C-alpha cells in the first residue's frame, strides 16, 4: 500500500494543525448565536461566494467527478449539462426566495416556514434537512477515506481522522471559522486540481496536443448528449441537465439550510444575490477542470502509463493517481486538497445541522436561556452530528454499493430537497395553504419519489409478483427533485382546495 514521504506527511499535518488553530483563534468571538451561526451578518459578497463554492466542492467533486470522465465505459463531459441547470436554478432562488430569507433576523431557512405555516411544518422540514445532510455527508467522508486509506493504514482510521479534525475546528470557531477556512481550502483544492492537470499533461508524451487529439477521438470531450435526449432513465442528457438540474439547484440552494446560512451572513440582499448567481459560473468552470483531469487519466491508462488504474473503481482512480504518480511534495499538497474539499463541506454541514437543532427545535421550546447556553448547546450538537456522519461513512464502507459516490450523494439530496422546495414554494404564495395540507403534500411527495426510486435500487428485480416495468429504473436521479416538488405542491393545493369546497 502506498505511503506518504516525510515531506508530504509534514504538509498534511501542517494543514490539519492550521485549520485547528484557526478554529481556536475564532473561539474568543463566539459569544452569541448571531456570531456563531451567521458571522455577525457582516461577511462580504466575495467571501460568501467562496464559501458557497467551497461548501459544494466536497471530496465527492474532487475525487468522484474526475472518475465520471475517466470511466473507460464511456465517460465524457456530459455531466456539465447539469451545470447549465444549476445556473438557472440559482437565478430563480436569488429573486424568488432570497428576499424572504434576508428580511428580519433569521438564523435558519426553516423559520420562514414557521411564519407561513405553523411550527410542525418547520420542524418536519428541518428534520428532513438533518437526515439528508447526515447521510449525504457521511458518504462524503467515506469517499475521502478512500484516498486517506493509503496514508493512514485503512478506511476506518481515515474516517476517524477526517471526522474528528473537522468537528474540532467547527466546534471551536463557529461560522466565522468555517468561512475563513473555506477560503483557504478553496485555494488549496483549486491549486491541487490545477497541479494534477499539469502533471497529467507532463506524463502524456505529446502533452496538450495529444490530450486534445486522443481525447477527442475517444469521445471524452462530448458535452451535449444526443443519443439519449428523451430517455428519462439517462441522467446526463440535456433535458435532465437543464430542467432537472434547475429544480435540483433551486432545492439545494433555496431550501437547504447548508446554503441558506451562507446568504444570511451577507451584508445585504444585493450582495447575497451577487454571491449566489456568480457561484453557478464558478462551479461550471470547476467541474470542467475536474472532468478534464479525469479524461487525461483515461489517456494515461490507454497509453500504458497508468496501469495501476486498470480494474479500479472510478471513484478511487484520482486518489491512486495522486499517491502513485505525483512527485514528493506535490502529493502532500494534493492530499491536503482532498482534505480541504472534504472538510469545507463537512464543517458547513456540522454548523448548519447544529443551527437547525437549536433554532428549529430547542430554542422555540426553551426561549429563556442565556445566549452562552445556546452557544454551548450548539457546540455539543456539532460534535453529535459529526459522530453521526462518521457512522454513516463507516456503514458505507462496510455495506455500500460500488456505484459512483457522486451519484449516490446527489440521489440522496434529490430525494428530499425537492420536497423541501415544494414547501417553500407553497409558503411563498400570496395565500399559503393550510399547514396540514402542506404536510399532506410533503408525505405524498415522499411516497411518490420513493416509488420512483425503488426500482433503480434493485430491490424489486427478483420479486416475481412485481410487474416487469417496475423491475428496472423508471427515472434517472436528476428527475427526483422535480417529481418531489411537483407532487408536494400539486397535492397540497388540491387538498387545500378540497377542504374549502367541503365547507
Note the main attributes of this structure:
Sodium/glucose cotransporter; 0% strand; 503 residues; globular
What is the structure about, briefly put?
The chain is mostly helical and about 500 residues long.
Molecular structure report:
The chain is mainly α. It has one domain: Sodium/glucose cotransporter (Up-down Bundle). Helix content is about 75%, strand content about 0%. Helix 3 packs across helix 9 and helix 4 (about 60-70) packs across helix 14 (about 315-325). The longest helix is centred in the middle third of the chain and has 49 residues, at about 155-205. It is globular, with a radius of gyration of 22 Å. The mean pLDDT is about 80.
Helix-strand topology string: HHHHHHHHHHHHHHHHHHH
How many domain units? 1
Q: What is the mean pLDDT?
A: 82
Which spans of ≥5 residues are poorly predicted at pLDDT below 50?
none
| CATH top level assignment | Mainly Alpha
> What is the general shape?
globular
Count of runs of 4 or more consecutive helical residues:
19
CATH topology: Sodium/glucose cotransporter
Question: Roughly how many Å apart are the termini?
Answer: 71 Å
Percent helix: over 70%
Estimated radius of gyration: 22 Å
Biggest β-sheet, characterized? Answer: none
Give me the secondary-structure category: mainly alpha
| % residues in beta strands | under 5%
The CATH homologous superfamily name equals Sodium/glucose cotransporter
Amino acid at each position: 500500500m502506498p505511503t506518504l514521504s516525510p515531506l508530504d506527511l509534514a504538509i498534511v499535518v501542517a494543514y490539519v494543525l492550521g485549520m485547528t488553530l484557526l478554529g481556536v483563534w475564532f473561539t474568543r468571538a463566539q459569544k452569541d448565536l448571531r456570531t456563531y451561526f451567521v458571522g455577525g451578518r457582516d461577511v462580504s459578497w466575495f467571501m460568501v461566494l467562496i464559501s458557497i463554492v467551497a461548501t459544494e466542492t466536497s471530496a465527492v467533486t474532487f475525487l468522484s467527478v474526475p472518475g465520471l470522465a475517466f470511466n473507460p465505459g464511456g465517460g465524457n463531459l456530459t455531466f456539465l449539462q447539469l451545470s447549465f441547470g444549476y445556473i438557472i436554478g440559482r437565478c430563480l432562488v436569488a429573486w424568488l426566495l432570497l428576499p424572504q430569507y434576508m428580511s428580519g433576523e433569521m438564523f435558519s431557512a426553516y423559520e420562514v416556514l414557521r411564519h407561513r405555516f405553523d411550527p410542525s411544518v418547520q420542524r418536519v422540514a428541518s428534520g428532513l434537512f438533518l437526515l439528508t445532510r447526515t447521510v449525504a455527508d457521511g458518504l462524503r467522508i467515506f469517499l475521502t477515506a478512500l484516498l486517506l486509506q493509503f496514508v493512514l493504514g485503512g478506511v476506518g482510521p481515515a474516517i476517524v481522522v477526517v471526522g474528528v479534525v473537522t468537528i474540532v475546528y467547527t466546534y471551536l470557531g463557529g461560522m466565522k471559522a468555517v468561512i475563513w477556512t473555506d477560503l483557504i481550502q478553496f485555494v488549496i483544492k483549486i491549486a491541487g486540481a490545477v497541479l494534477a492537470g499539469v502533471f497529467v499533461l507532463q506524463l502524456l508524451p505529446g502533452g496538450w496536443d495529444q490530450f486534445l487529439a486522443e481525447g477527442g477521438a475517444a469521445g471524452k470531450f462530448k458535452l451535449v448528449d444526443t443519443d439519449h435526449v428523451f430517455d428519462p432513465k439517462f441522467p446526463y442528457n440535456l433535458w435532465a441537465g437543464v430542467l432537472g438540474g434547475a429544480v435540483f439547484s433551486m432545492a439545494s440552494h433555496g431550501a437547504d439550510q447548508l446554503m441558506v446560512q451562507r446568504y444570511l451572513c451577507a451584508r445585504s440582499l444585493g450582495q447575497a444575490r451577487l454571491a449566489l448567481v456568480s457561484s453557478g459560473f464558478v462551479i461550471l468552470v470547476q467541474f470542467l477542470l475536474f472532468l478534464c483531469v479525469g479524461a487525461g487519466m483515461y489517456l494515461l491508462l490507454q497509453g500504458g502509463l497508468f496501469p495501476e488504474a486498470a480494474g479500479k473503481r472510478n471513484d478511487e482512480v484520482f486518489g491512486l493517481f495522486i499517491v502513485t504518480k505525483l512527485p514528493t511534495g506535490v502529493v502532500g499538497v494534493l492530499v491536503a486538497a482532498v482534505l480541504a474539499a472534504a472538510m469545507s463541506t463537512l464543517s458547513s454541514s456540522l454548523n448548519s445541522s447544529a443551527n437547525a437543532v437549536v433554532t428549529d427545535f430547542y430554542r422555540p421550546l426553551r426561549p429563556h436561556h442565556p445566549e452562552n447556553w445556546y452557544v454551548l448547546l450548539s457546540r455539543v450538537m456539532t460534535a453529535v452530528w459529526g459522530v453521526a456522519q462518521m457512522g454513516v461513512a463507516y456503514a458505507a464502507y462496510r455495506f455500500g454499493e460500488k456505484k459512483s459516490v457522486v451519484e449516490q450523494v446527489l440521489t440522496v439530496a434529490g430525494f428530499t430537497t425537492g420536497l423541501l422546495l415544494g414547501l417553500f414554494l407553497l409558503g411563498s404564495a400570496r395565500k399559503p395553504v393550510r399547514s396540514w395540507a402542506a404536510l399532506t403534500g410533503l408525505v405524498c411527495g415522499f411516497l411518490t419519489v420513493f416509488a420512483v426510486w425503488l426500482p433503480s435500487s434493485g430491490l424489486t428485480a427478483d420479486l416475481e409478483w412485481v410487474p416487469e416495468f417496475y423491475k428496472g429504473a423508471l427515472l434517472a436521479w436528476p428527475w427526483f427533485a422535480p417529481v418531489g416538488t411537483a407532487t408536494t405542491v400539486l397535492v397540497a393545493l388540491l387538498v387545500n382546495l378540497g377542504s374549502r369546497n367541503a365547507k
